[in-house]
């Protein structure tokens, strides 16, 4: 049975345009697999749309905000609508980079040195007092980024302590909680995962090499600005360790559906966990589709299988 599917995309986050493209690609794939598909935004018509379709399955493809912080998944639970992807609690843990990183570290996964500071504390205690302490504790160079969100929005590399206040201000423009973490020089990896009731399939790691040296928003979503290689051109031992990190994080955070684990292979050859995403991009320049292609997987088959899995189909 091919269940009808409502693909949720858009939203009001800074990643709205990316979400719309991701959602359209998934919707196109599901139609190719034979599903009746409705594409919709998250608005006042969503509940009536979902309730107006028998045996419907939701396929959230919203990035950031409501799409990844667990709130939309809570609403789908309330409506008793099955959906593809991780549950509310998982979303909350993964969406906050400081929490996800600490949970991974507690499970024995290598993570960067990290500090998380809310805007109120940074403002009330005095930026000048904290800046030097942050640099001493984390070390230079370091990375400053919003605790929530994605697409590298608000992310700054800091090589000189004098630039740290501006980097903090940039990150606080996107989020009230900011993460300051050790910069690790190495090879960036994105490891896609496909999780169903039968278990987790780890896709070949995708190696990320931006032409301009920085994997920022433009490098992510502009064709030709980043060279992606899958499987990653790294030592077999590093690849095996990266896969184990992805499996551990998936288990610790209870990831489901399509997810992604980001890591970086340091100069010592050991991968270090950076963050996990419950709603990775599925655009033409996104990372997980590259991993799927390297694994010989068809997006239409994968998405249809995930729909059947959450709908409780036996076939």
Describe it.
This protein has 315 residues and is α+β, with helices and mostly antiparallel strands. Helices cover 38% and strands 23% of the residues. The chain is built from 12 helices and 13 strands. Strands 8, 9, 10, 11, 12 and 13 form a 6-stranded antiparallel β-sheet that branches. A 4-stranded antiparallel β-sheet has the order 4-7-5-6. It has a 3-stranded parallel β-sheet with strand order 2-1-3. The protein is globular, with a radius of gyration of 19 Å. The protein starts with a strand and ends with a helix. The mean pLDDT is 91.
Ordered list of secondary-structure elements with their pairings:
Blueprint: E1 5-8, H1 16-32, E2 37-40, H2 46-51, E3 57-60, H3 71-78, H4 88-95, H5 97-106, E4 114-118, H6 119-125, H7 127-138, E5 142-146, E6 156-158, H8 164-172, E7 177-182, E8 186-196, E9 199-202, E10 206-210, H9 217-221, E11 226-229, H10 236-253, E12 257-266, E13 271-277, H11 287-294, H12 299-311
Parallel strand pairs: 1-2, 1-3
Antiparallel strand pairs: 4-7, 5-6, 5-7, 8-9, 8-10, 8-12, 10-11, 12-13
Helix pairs in contact: 1-12
What's a quick, concise take on this entry?
The protein is α+β, with helices and mostly antiparallel strands and 315 residues long. It contains twelve helices and 13 strands.
Search tags:
12 helices, 13 strands, globular, 6-stranded antiparallel β-sheet, 4-stranded antiparallel β-sheet, alpha+beta, 315 residues
